[in-house]
Write a structure and sequence with these properties.
two-stranded antiparallel sheet; 4 helices; globular
Length: about 90
């Protein structure tokens, strides 16, 4: 059960890393993102697909572009992560 959760967190981390790179270097294509993040292009492609489906990026002729939803995500990201950390800490026994 926890292995599955760990895998999901790692995937989410990659999606956030890709979203940050798109925000910082937009417009940007798959090959440039792959080079920049040192990740295989198939992983970048999957993250871009997920981010586009969720509305965080959009495709353009010149590459991926971040949307306003991405800005909102990063505005609240630390607080949202702190809340998740708090929930996980409550699960621990003393």
């Amino acid at each position: 059960m926890l292995k599955k959760m760990k895998d999901e967190i790692e995937l989410l981390s990659r999606h956030i890393e890709v979203a940050r790179a798109v925000t910082d270097h937009q417009p940007i294509g798959i090959m440039k993102l792959s080079e920049l993040l040192a990740l295989p292009s198939h992983r970048i492609r999957y993250s871009l697909h997920v981010l586009e489906q969720l509305g965080y990026i959009r495709a353009s002729a010149d590459g991926a572009i971040a949307t306003a939803l991405t800005e909102e995500l990063f505005t609240h990201l630390n607080d949202d992560l702190d809340e998740l950390i708090h929930l996980l800490e409550q699960m621990k026994r003393d």
